[in-house]
Amino acid sequence: MSQSPLLPRSTPASEGVDSAGLMALLDRWDEQALECHSVVVLRHGQVIAEGWWAPYSADRPHLLYSLTKSFTAIAVGLVVDDGLLALDDRVVDVLPEHVPEPVPPRSAELTVHHLLSMSTGHTHDLLEDAWDLEPADLVRGFLRIEPNDPVGSLHQYNNATTFLLARMVERVAGRTLPDLVHERLFAPMGVTVAEWERVAGGATFGFHGLHLTTEAVAAFGELLLRGGRWRDRQLVSRQWIDLATRKHVETVLSDDDSRTADWLQGYGYQFWMSRHGFRGDGAMGQLCLVVPSADLVVAITAAVTDAQAVLDGVWDCLLPAIDQPVDHGLDSKLGDRMRGLALPLVIGEHRPQDSAIAVVDGPTEDAALPLGSRLSLEAVPDGWSVRLEADGTTFAVDVGHGEWRESRPFGRPVVASGGWQGGVFVADLYVITTPSRVRITVADGRATATWNLVPLVGASLLWQLSPDLITRPNRS
Questions:
Q1: 55 preceded by a cis bond (ω within 30 of 0)
Q2: Which residues are CB-neighbours of 101 under 8 A, at least 6 positions away?
Q3: Can you give the pTM of this predicted structure?
Q4: What 3-state DSSP class applies to 243?
Q5: Is the Cβ–Cβ distance between 195 and 49 less than 8 Å?
Q6: Three-state DSSP class for residue 102
Q7: Which has the closest alpha carbon to 436: 408, 410, 465?
């Protein structure tokens, strides 16, 4: 899964950045116990800092969640540039076979612009409602739900809009969204590792599910920063980049007041405006930050519930270190620290004489394995083999003692460490191409399997390990 470097390398000092700011950024994230998985920082088109918290690594793709939307927006730009789609084209005209009869009047008004800016007039995210109405046809389900307010009147984050955009792109382009993005974007950029999650019917989500390496995310940010130009090729028109990355609609506080400063700066075409520049943004801290005023790109993957804290660190620590006096001696110290980043291993004893058999008996909500799943634990040299039986499927996962150990029960990687803590066996299983991990505990014939952050497509561990990346098997 390795690939050639996409971007040239330099040092912070050479590009006018004091490494003290980057060190302060890492300190801030440590102090706040933010679980970051990777960070790549570009200045003047050069990688000046990069690091991965083991067991995450540079060559692995990472699930981007809704940062995927920004790539779909660029795909829309490609077909707009080609004259195949226009901003005022209506959904009902481009996808007529998905139109319900009768179609609600306001639904009939929805255009490419309304979908891109998430200004459809709906007052909540329709994804689940639309799928419940039409399990085999999300587009039809979406169109059946008439907007509460006039279209274009307000912003409401709405995942289903991007699913519709993906289907519209595919209709006018005559090829799948992944094929279009690969041919027109990834191949010219040299991106060779790109994976897309799909629903049961085979369609890519569009609003979620793209897996890329962090360097590829940073390269995408560099493409945006240069107005769609990659080296000597204009891959996307500057006009589209400028249009997509400017504010089209105001954003407002959510009902639960969960939106914070960087979510209140306005929304573009599947891009968020930020207090500094703009960004592609995915759940749990998947970020592509572009700050044109500083000629800066920052790509981050993480497993956090407070992405604002991640952003605040960049604004408070990194931005003040740009174009200030630099300490050249800190560059090598920063490099050493970046190379030594790691998430904590599970601490505990090996005890090779101990084995265990257990049944999962809790928790019942958002558990990675259903109640009644069986687990057996067998010691092997420097670790364990954990055998799991869930939903009629049996598979084994390797767990390291004092080290990370990788296994691929269905082809997708899992990286794990564990140990005996008194009478309890504890193991952390990282679904390493995603932000999420499962903590397994075993004691006295009872076991639990709980997520740190429940995957947004559902809690089943088996879905996350699916080799064909169908992570919404109950939807078409």
A1: yes
A2: none
A3: 0.96
A4: helix
A5: no
A6: coil
A7: 465
For 336-349, b/e burial (b = at least 16 CB within 10 A) is ebbeebebebbebe
Pick from 67, 13, 77, 80: nearest CA to 44: 13
Which amino acid would we find at residue 315? W
- Among 57, 260, 83, CA closest to 172: 83
Q: Quickly count: other Cβ atoms within 10 Å of residue 250's Cβ.
A: 13
Q: Which residues of 213-246 are buried (b: 16+ CB within 10 A; e: fewer)?
A: bbbbbbbbbbbbbbbbbbeeeebbbeebbebbbe
Give per-residue pLDDT as tens, 165-212: 999 999 999 999 999 999 999 999 999 999 999 998 899 999 999 999
Distance, CA of 120 to chain centre: 24
Q: Measuring CA to CA, how many Å separate 10 from each of 190, 298, 314, 402?
A: 20, 15, 20, 34
Distance CA 400, CA 419 (A): 8
Q: Tell me how far apart the alpha carbons of residues 318 and 225 are, in angstroms, rounded to a whole number.
A: 18
Angle subtended by helix axes 330-339 and 19-31, to nearest 10: 40
